[in-house]
Amino acid sequence: MPEGETTIATLARAITRLEENPHPNMFGTGPEKDLFTHLASDLSLPFRAVVTNLWLFGPVVSRLFSRIPSLNAIVRTVTSVTMVNGGVKVNVLPPSATAMVNHRIHPAQTVKEVMEYDRKLINDERVKIRVVSSMEPHPMSPYGDEDFGYQTIKNSIRQIWGNSTVVPGVMIGNTDTVHYIRFTKNIYRFSPTFMFPEDLKRFHGNNERISVQNYEQVINFYYHLLVNADEGTLPPFHKHNDEL
Description:
By secondary structure, this protein is mainly alpha-helical. It is built from 8 helices and 2 strands. Strands 1-2 form a two-stranded antiparallel ribbon.
């Protein structure tokens, strides 16, 4: 006979706690702050006043970002329960129940800190937590005025899209750069493709696409990136059309 809640109910309670209590907002402790300070000169006066005074408006900005899924992933470690398993038969009490939880960790946190937060939040000795696989957040790549890699990418972008504003940002997701972090700290994740909100649902799915014009710009960008990188010093900025 059942005594109290089942293992599935216990697990469901733990999952609910994870979903309803997000990790702390880390706005200002990673590169997301510099993203906005670099944008300041191109913003209209009201927005410029906000981003140049984040010491005052930071809490307001961080709360606003928390309400937008794509921006929430920039300011905190985000949590997604991706797999659940439990029960063997409709009339048999489940001997165990498991869930797979995926975290995308903010650059200012560590795997250990995330695990400690989860354990404290769930606060149930019946729920056992273990790491199946993990990766610490990568170190931030330098993006100063004299950093050759960043400035070369920036110049190459502006040669193709002359009116663009280039700012440092956070890559939400993993890339093949994991294989290079032992060799250099100058690792930059940039794709010269246009993405719009309606494109998000196409990622790795049906009708994933870019325009013909953007395809030409992608080729043009990589051509200029290779040429500029071969210079060895930062080249003077020049602008031209889409043709090679």
